[in-house]
Amino acid sequence: xxxxxxxxxxxxNLEAELVRAFSLQELEQARVACLGRKGSLxxxxxxxxxxxxxxxxxxxxKANEVKTLLTELMxxxxxxxxxxxxxxRLSGFDASLPGRVPWQGSRHxxxxxxxxxxxxxxxxxxxxxxxxxxxxxxxxxxxLNMPPEHPARDxxxxxxxxxxxxxxxxxxxxxxxxxxxxxxxxxxIVPGKVYRRDSxxxxxxxxxxxxxxxxxxxxxxxxLRGTLTxxxxxxxxxxxxxxxxxxxxxxxxxxxxxxxxxxxxxxxGHTGKDACRVCKGTGWVEILGCGMVDPAVxxxxxxxxxxxxxxxxxxxxxxxAMLKYGIGDLRMFFENDVRFLAxx
Length: 344
What we know:
There is one protein chain. The protein has 11 helices and 12 strands. By secondary structure, it is of the alpha+beta class. It has 2 domains: 3-90; 109-341, BirA Bifunctional Protein, domain 2 (2-Layer Sandwich), CATH 3.30.930.10. Strand 3 (159-160) and strand 4 (165-167) form a beta hairpin. It is elongated and about 100 Å long.
């Protein structure tokens, strides 16, 4: 039997195989058996060197024609099987049924607050930066003026991985990394998760913080006050009153706590005859900590405290969200209840 005859016989053989192929898997098996690297066509063509040189062109031409036809047969059978599978999938579909509105998700309130705060500071010229959540002790404490024996470390409830590696307790380490990687002036805003060994009705082991840092020449406490007043009124409304109280943070000096007038009682301290449960009758709600960057921090990152000054601030995102949206229970942020999330 000549090679041309053998090539021509591949066509009815494949047609018979395709009739018996009722799935794409069976179709692929038929393709490999006929057109694969070790298939029937390849075995026939491997005998081409046995022919006389004058006979080879005709066999090669026939082989190309047969291969083209075999490929077309495969494609037609594949299209037919795919159409059959699609028909089976649609067999139970009733086109007369009313349409279903696709599920519309909603962003988490902490996500909304983070985006809003970042947008406000970006409009003021700040750059959003991020850093690792598993942090070295140096960046989390030492470079922020908290050496190993510093009592402020006890306030952090730190989750240690090793003696010198920990889950960051605030986003301040990113400020250190930013200052070490670039020269002043710089203005950065740092959102992210932080971790502390604390869990009760008002605390969770993981929460979100946003911190900001501005460094340059002749940066003043007045600029800090003005920046944060603008920011807080953007978030809580233009009628919000803001006050600053002296405080202590190891990485800022002087330091302050910023309060806003209570949005529940309007700063009156009471709702009707009862004391306001949010501000506990004071008319004020603590919202963030801030201060001028301590010269020791500048020295740790290689800045000259005689040449530059700066301010820093930090706030808890969940606390802002609770005040902004009137959420009374911190645990609602983590329950994944779609009824709660759909409100935002």
